[in-house]
Amino acid sequence: MPDPAADLRIIGFLCNWCSYGGADTAGVARLAQPTDLRIVRVPCSGRIDPLFIAKAFYGGADGVLVSGCHPRDCHYSEGNYHARRRLELFLRLLPALGIDPGRFLYTWVSASEGQRWQQVVADFTARVHALGPMPRLRETDLAAAALCHPAAPQEGA
Amino acid sequence: MTVLDLTHSCDMQFVAEVARESGQNLTLCYQCGNCTAGCPFTFAYDLPASSVMRALQWGQREAVLSCRSIWICATCKTCSTRCPNNIDVARIMEVLRQISRREGYAPEKQIKQFQDSFLQSVMRHGRVFELGTMMSFIARSRRLTDMDLGPKALARGKLFLRARDIRGRDEVERIFRRYRESLEK
Amino acid sequence: MRLGVFVCHCGSNIAATVDCAAVALAARAMPDVAFAADSVYTCSEPGQEAIVAAVAEHGLDGVVVASCSPRMHERTFRRTVARAGLNPYMFEMANIREHVSWVGRDKERNTAKATDLVRMAVEKLRRNRPLTPREFPVTRRVLVVGGGVAGIQAALDCADGGLEVVLVERASSIGGKMAQLDKTFPTVDCSSCVLGPRMVDVAQHPGITLHAYSEVASVSGWVGNFEVAVRRKATYVDWSKCTGCGECVKKCPARDAPDPFNAGLAPARAINIPFPQAIPKKAVINPAHCKQLTTGKCGVCAKVCPSGAIDYAMTETTVTEKVGAIIVATGYELFDPKVYGQYGGGRYPDVITSMQYERMLSASGPTGGHVLRPSDGREPRSVVFIQCVGSRDRHIGRPYCSGFCCMYTAKQAILTRDHVPGAQTYVFYMDIRSPGKGYDEFIRRAMEEYGVRYVRGRVSRIFPKGDRLVVRGADTLMAAQVQVEADLVVLAVGAEHAPGAHELAATLRVSIDEHGFFMEGHPKLRPVETNTAGVYLAGACQGPKDIPASVSQASAAAAKVLGLFARGTLASDPQVALVDPRRCVGCLKCLKTCPFGAIREEQGRDGAVRAQVVETVCQGCGVCCVTCPQGAVQLQHFTDDQILAEVEALCRIPLPTCG
Amino acid sequence: MSPRFAYYPGCSLEGTAQDYDRSGRACCAALGIELAEIPDWSCCGSSPAHAVDAVLSGALAARNLGLARQGGFGAVVTPCPNCLVNLRTAARDLDDPARRERINALLSVPCEGGLPAVSLLQALFEQAGPQALADAVVRPLAGLRVAPYYGCILHRPPGLMAFDDPENPVAMDALLEAAGAEVVAFPFKTECCGASYGVPRKDLVMELSGRLLEAAADLGADALAVACPLCQMNLDLRQDQIAAARRRAFGIPVFYFTQLLGLALGLDRADLGLDRLVVPPGGVLRKLGTEG
Ligand SMILES: Cc1cc2nc3c(=O)[nH]c(=O)nc-3n(C[C@H](O)[C@H](O)[C@H](O)COP(=O)(O)OP(=O)(O)OC[C@H]3O[C@@H](n4cnc5c(N)ncnc54)[C@H](O)[C@@H]3O)c2cc1C
Ligand SMILES: Cc1cc2nc3c(=O)[nH]c(=O)nc-3n(C[C@H](O)[C@H](O)[C@H](O)COP(=O)(O)OP(=O)(O)OC[C@H]3O[C@@H](n4cnc5c(N)ncnc54)[C@H](O)[C@@H]3O)c2cc1C
Ligand code: SF4
Ligand code: SF4
Ligand code: SF4
Ligand code: SF4
Ligand code: SF4
Ligand code: SF4
Ligand code: SF4
Ligand code: SF4
User: Fold this and answer.
1) pLDDT at residue A107 above 90?
2) What's the CATH number where C426 sits?
């Protein structure tokens, strides 16, 4: 009997229109996936504050996956462009926060791409397992994480 | 015709073996018949290519391994080029031929004898010695063939009477030797 | 707060791989949970009644249902909790079917995951607040994009229902593919006799504004109030003057323009009216082929036009239309068989497409309804049809079935026998798909009464032999390689997405599937809706469809629009952003990032500038929330607190409150 | 700057197809394509090897790729389609670490990776091309009706060969046209001739090559142009056998396409090996105004 504790903590932030739908499509097609991932539904990838991700890591998440609509397909026209800009900046900051960038993935999956979703989950889960559980972060790292808030001076600078 | 007992005659291990060795997904075949339609050798086959595919899907090991078609197939790749499901049918035919040979089937004796003669020549000389291959084939098959061609070819300088070994002859022979050893392992 | 949790079995859909009772048991230990139970079919009537009863009995303030995707039943259960007397937003769903039971194989792990998802939902619900939608007025006009049979039907149904309709058609006439057809299955009645009068109705209906030779350039706004820019391409003919007399066409010396209406069977003039029944029946100049426009030397049409309609200086214009809903009916495109080199790939003149054959059969087509070989104009004695060309073929990236080609092939084979008595017809097929009413009988008639010879197998190649063509295929039922000598070969080409579908989808902010067809909201429950409120689908733009299915869907889409407009107002989604005036410092970063212009600058009584969200304009994307340095603007129902509560519910370590 | 290629003739080109070898080398030399024969090359295994085992076949071909790599070449040219398939397959396998390991286990000198291999036709088409050829033609093949026959595997499978159109190849057509010939729309350009079954199952070759000769004859072709030693042997050396089996006389000479190009380029007759053709080409040569 496998140990349920063997699942790592992977948190997914998915936009409601594309990727959440893609995950549903994968479900409807019964495309088997590892069980580690738990999904937080948000209206748009543009709603995702990098701080959510930093806090998730601080809270002990072993991996964080963000998935939104393909670049030109955003339900809200341009929310995913905002997301991309913020998250790319965030990705560059990860090492400074003491977080292996391999634990974070930002990708696009549309509502019809059930198979792609299955692949993304399988690949990312394997990647996180290869890295093992997340070492505990210090409060100072989190303070540094606050710097990656889009309203902080870095953005646009 | 007897009733084909699908419950007991379906050898799924065989299906898995062919799938693994060929790297092809056999369930993709939906029996459109394109391979049969395009194959230049269908006229000489006992099982058309699409029937080989179907029998294979049903794990009909004996029927597939003992058929002549898998030996006659010339790997012309017409089937693979046109299969709407991107199945490399020619590769499957090749794998079946290899398994069939391994397991001692040879419904097309002369084709096998010719292949053996050819490879023996390569092993001995490093390159094919055409006349030697022919002589060896005649010896194996006890069939005199193409006696009309010899003089024509000779007259035009297309045939050498003596083999010329390459320097790396031993290296080539060792390839064969190591291959045989790997089979024994 | 007192919360109730209901864990659904969905029959065995969930219960087979999730221990639902264990999830409910675990939920009972979660904070504020006053009641938790498992339930066999939560969305069924007894399932919903159990929720209503539990709310009353246990005095619940909110409900979590752990079941299928919220995309499936969130609305259903919001109505349920409303019936129980709660605010519909005091409800959360945990998706333990699509995201757990259907994708995980290990029951123990699935159960742990389902429990986590319930914990997340509970933590979020603890922070939910009642929300109330606002009413806003709608523009009771509808835009129909595409004037094929589906668009025509949708436009007429909407207009007959009392709505104003704007119909935008890319070509110079409405009618779509159906206008090109000779006769239609399964009745074999004349296509233009059926469609023609409907097209005239469109032209004459006072409620319909037709923009032909036009395209949708951009769309802004939202359900109830869209603003659409329609680009009217330059026709070089003033349509208000053109009477469609056709004098110009007769005299035009440029005779090598492409003629899409005749599927390339014959060339057209540079100035053209596509067919006699065109609506509108107006001339259009093809600027790439007109001698006047390319070389400046001609001007014949301007000289002969009795109405002085020709205008070589015309440029495109844009008109703006305000509408409350949009129906997409842009249809499909036919597969180009040139990629099949083995079928001649365009090299053999007597290998034609089904649409070319349709034009050949049509009395108004270039051959006047005579079946003649393009190569030598001879009547064929033997016609071979090949099905599934460009369909059900992964090799060329078209794995899907085009749905209508089996049927139209049977139709064309039958018509061949009518047009060329004594001609022999063959059909190579893999499967025959004829599930409609009277459809299979139709196929049988082709075989039994008309003697069409069906061969079960794909064709591998076609090659010329003398002036005939040899079609080499297989009859898999005989396990034989077969060949047929043909005078004419007709390729039953499949359907692919309409050109420009990707761009239109991006403009309308709706999704398309992997093959470029528009995505419906739900394949069973919302087949004519999209996931964008106020945008509907009709006809083959959603996937290959024959005429009966296209028309049904068009009427369904029209009914949806009529339903949407039934009351003069719509309720706005209350999941919108809200500015906390106490925290806002008036930097207006949010105003700059909002993609919908939903944020206004407001001067408060204290004179300070602050941001304010216009509730009916805000689409609830949440982009502004991440931008605000003060955390002053929050998306209701998706606040920072709520999202972080979900994250925290998953974490081993409590989250600090920094940032 | 002439590109320098490793040249892998393959066994037939030392035997029955010496005329292909000589005419091919001569054309390349005339068009500025430099070929250097791989020293001490060995047989690629041809079709019998892959009938037996993929790794054995891979190793036999890989030995030659290894030698070419040692010689510092960037690509291999081979006139024989069968060799080409084996070399290309081996090159692909050598780029896959797992398969490379299995192949190297059979080799005395391991081969660390693949090397691109192209057919002589592809080299002539891409390195020289129809225009350069047309410019160099001194004696156009005017009035000669040629049926171009590519054989089954020269362009197949398309994923592996990645050259020209697998259903309607045109490279040879273009070169022959550039040489001034009238190219017949030959419908069986890629149909199989019966391959190596001439010896063990002659009936197969009689049927398949028979169909080809009949089609060429029905189209009024003066000659066939081929790019494969096996095709040439089946159609030329066995033409009498086929004529007997099908009770129809053909008398159609079967040239290597390089022989025809060589004629147009005015190359030395001794280099073209026309005297090695079994079906006498005299009539055709007379038609060209150059006695045979
Ligand atoms: C050879 C053949 C024979 C057939 N025979 C039959 C038959 O006998 N019976 C039957 O039931 N079905 C038949 N069909 C199927 C039939 O054609 C379709 O069911 C029908 O045309 C679908 O209608 P539609 O309005 O959805 O699409 P279409 O007919 O494709 O109409 C779409 C319209 O939208 C326009 N458009 C596209 N994009 C845009 C844009 N971006 N902006 C503005 N306008 C745009 C197009 O110009 C076109 O006018 C046949 C199909 C073929 C190919
Ligand atoms: C075994 C099976 C499996 C299926 N699986 C699927 C599937 O997986 N997916 C899918 O899409 N489709 C499936 N279907 C098809 C599906 O059942 C039908 O598409 C669907 O039920 C049609 O819905 P309906 O409302 O038109 O008719 P029905 O479901 O038949 O409903 C008609 C209703 O009207 C009532 N009624 C009848 N006469 C009268 C009367 N005179 N007065 C008052 N009431 C009356 C009946 O009692 C009934 O409740 C399946 C069908 C079968 C048989
Ligand atoms: S062509 Fe492909 S799909 Fe068709 S029968 Fe052959 S193997 Fe099956
Ligand atoms: S590869 Fe074999 S089976 Fe396929 S078409 Fe050629 S001869 Fe037939
Ligand atoms: S609520 Fe969803 S999961 Fe439960 S029975 Fe209904 S459809 Fe199934
Ligand atoms: S443009 Fe003039 S000539 Fe042409 S159809 Fe219109 S009215 Fe007639
Ligand atoms: S001006 Fe152009 S459209 Fe008019 S008649 Fe001349 S070529 Fe035709
Ligand atoms: S409808 Fe018939 S012809 Fe068309 S793709 Fe489907 S099966 Fe093939
Ligand atoms: S970004 Fe925040 S602080 Fe700035 S105006 Fe908008 S709500 Fe106010
Ligand atoms: S959530 Fe914010 S950014 Fe999005 S539409 Fe509303 S106000 Fe604009």
Assistant:
1) yes
2) 3.50.50.60
